[in-house]
Amino acid sequence: MFHTRKCRDFIPSRIDLELSSLKSKDADDVPRDDERFTWSILKLRPHERLTDSQKRVVRTEFGFTKYVLEIRIRQALEFYTTRRWGLDQEFPRLECLSIDHVTMSEEEINGD
Fold first, then answer.
1. For the whole model, what pTM was predicted?
2. Domain boundaries, the chain
3. Cα atoms found within 13 Å of the Cα of residue 9, Cβ hemisphere only
4. 74 phi and psi, to 5 degrees?
5. Which of 29, 78, 96, 101 has a 20 to 30 Å separation from 89 between CA atoms?
6. Cα–Cα distance between 112 and 110 in angstroms, integer?
């Protein structure tokens, strides 16, 4: 069951317009959220310490179609992806080969 107290970074003012900065400031005065408008491209593969059969299972579980799985997320969500996929654990199933940051195009930003 979902409970707001379990979300440590839950900030009601981001949701409630009565409390938000949109009511007290013009949108032009609010700084641009660069992490929201930047892609993080993570290149992942099964961890090298896994056996071949374990690597096959990981490839199936995560939907690998090539040797390296490339995922694209917003930079602002990089921390959560790292935690959710266990990349920050001592013995992860996946290892991150690289993380590239690419600024979104105006078309991508306006398509939000």
1. 0.70
2. 31-110
3. 4
4. -70, 145
5. 101
6. 5
